[in-house]
Write a structure and sequence with these properties.
363 residues, 2 domains, alpha+beta
Length: 363
């Protein structure tokens, strides 16, 4: 798996806020702005070319959603903040890469910061995503990724499968958070098959690479847990507490998303426990293999002990005329007889070990 870099230290508020306030030109690639607006009967969807178009849309439509993709275009982000009365400090929280999930009120906007999960090759990545909930608008900030986690919400709006114009922006916010939470399920599904494959390999062919894979799985699960745990608190606050611009209908959706988050946390904890068990299985398999090796070496040494005794005893110097002489020293075929005795001894010991089950790996 790819090497995981250490998390960078979060920049201070005044540094990033000052950068946003001082930016006059885009500091990175231009951000992509998608606009979705509706009034109960009609729905409008477009890609915004100029930020000034958002001011006209805000004045015309009762419900608008601005999706900002790209967090390095500071000038565009600052212009959006001016149009929707979002302060620099709130924008700083929206574009901070390692922002912790939270809910906070900034003036006439409610900031909901969460993290979206996705697979990046073999690693799991959680990207920051910020939602600004206003009286008539929802603005989402997220980085550029290989997939669009909100396409399902756009499809529902296009197909008129949601009463967005009637229910308002809090309903749209609930749909977006529900999409974020649902995005964790396919990411977690991959761990079931991965852990099963690791278990089979841990039993049959444990290796140091396997231990690294177990460690990476536990690291990925910890990454998901760090993102889900504070998200649970955010959804609990939205579903149970009085929050600006959030009605009872939306709170019911938030409570449902809270239940999904608890289910994800239970899955994550279960997989982490399985990962700990797999590490124990790996260590036990390594010990069993070492025991097998030591058993074979012990059997070999044990088999050669009587042979060494016989050859060493016969290798001593004796007087051939002594009545206490070693037998077969003067016999013509004495060496053959001694070799036959050693061969018979070896065969007899191997048969004895086999019948006792000492030469079998599994018994």
């Amino acid at each position: 798996m790819p090497h995981r870099k250490r998390r960078r230290r979060r920049p201070r508020h005044r540094d990033l806020a000052a950068s946003i306030a001082a930016a006059t030109q885009p500091s990175g690639s231009p951000a992509t702005l998608r606009l979705v607006a509706c009034d109960g009967q009609t729905t409008h969807e477009s890609t915004v070319q100029k930020v000034e178009e958002l001011a006209a849309a805000r004045a015309k439509w009762p419900v608008i959603w601005v999706d900002v993709e790209g967090l390095d275009d500071l000038a565009t982000i600052r212009s959006i903040g001016q149009i929707f009365d979002i302060g620099d400090l709130a924008l700083e929280d929206a574009v901070t890469p390692d922002e912790r999930p939270k809910i906070e009120v900034f003036g006439r906007q409610v900031l909901i910061a969460v993290r979206m999960a996705r697979s990046d090759g073999e690693a799991i990545v959680t990207d920051p995503m910020a939602i600004f909930l206003g009286e008539r608008s929802v603005i989402t900030f997220h980085d550029r990724t290989s997939h669009d986690g909100f396409e399902g919400v756009r499809q529902r709006i296009r197909q008129h499968r949601t009463r967005l114009g009637e229910l308002g922006v809090d309903h749209l916010c609930a749909l977006l958070l529900d999409a974020v939470i649902d995005g964790y399920f396919p990411v977690l599904e991959r761990f079931g098959d991965a852990l099963e494959a690791i278990e089979e390999e841990a039993l049959d062919n444990p290796s140091r690479q396997l231990l690294g894979r177990i460690h990476d799985v536990r690291t990925d699960l910890m990454t998901l847990r760090r993102a889900l745990w504070p998200t649970r608190d955010v959804l609990h606050a939205l579903g149970r507490e009085a929050t600006a611009f959030v009605g009872e209908h939306a709170r019911a959706h938030f409570r449902d998303s809270y239940d999904h988050t608890m289910e994800l946390l239970d899955l994550t904890e279960g997989y982490r426990e399985i990962g700990s068990d797999l590490r124990d299985i790996y260590l036990a398999s390594i010990n069993n293999r070492m025991n097998d090796v030591m058993k074979v070496l012990t059997v070999i040494a044990t088999v050669f002990m009587p042979l060494t005794f016989i050859t060493g005893w016969y290798g001593m110097n004796f007087d051939t005329q002594s009545p206490w002489n070693m037998p077969l020293l003067t016999y013509r075929y004495g060496s053959l007889v001694a070799a036959a005795v050693m061969l018979a001894t070896t065969v007899g010991m191997v048969v004895f070990f086999w019948r006792r089950g000492w030469l079998r790996r599994w018994h």
